[in-house]
Design goal:
Helix content is 0%, strand content 51%. The chain is built from no helices and 11 strands. The strands form 2 sheets. Strands 2, 4, 5, 6, 9, 10 and 11 form a 7-stranded mixed sheet that branches. It has a 4-stranded antiparallel sheet with strand order 1-3-8-7, with no helix packed on it. A hairpin with a 4-residue loop joins strand 7 and strand 8.
């Protein structure tokens, strides 16, 4: 079965960095786009960043553009979200999600989430 396991969350100071990882299994990882989304309690889900199956196209929400970098290692079935210049408003539960196609058309599986807290 499809599994997405996020890791790397934690507490960071404003201006600091964290790297999130998502280890995937149960499907042909190199054939599907992947994304990250985040949610703050009481607020809606916000799409953060996505990457095509071949890793050649990446996309970012305006709120994280220039600060976050998404990458993937298909040989390791893993996608990474490097988060730099973190701000308190980046505090959220971050989810890894699998697209239904090589491109970012829709999503069908989600991980359990990893908490990111940005605070001094």
């Amino acid at each position: 079965q499809v599994q997405l396991v996020e890791s790397g969350g934690g507490l960071a100071q404003p201006g600091g960095s964290l790297r999130l990882s998502c280890a995937a299994s149960g499907f042909t990882f190199s054939s599907y786009g992947m994304s990250w989304a985040r949610q703050v309690p009481g607020k809606g889900l916000e799409w953060v960043s996505g990457i095509y199956s071949d890793g050649k196209n990446t996309y970012y929400a305006d709120s994280v553009k220039g600060r976050f970098t998404l990458s993937r290692e298909n040989a390791k079935n893993t996608v990474y979200l490097q988060m730099n210049s973190l701000k308190p408003k980046d505090t959220a539960l971050y989810y890894c999600t699998k697209a239904t196609h090589a491109q970012l058309v829709a999503y069908d599986y989600w991980g359990q989430g990893t908490q990111v807290t940005v605070s001094s």
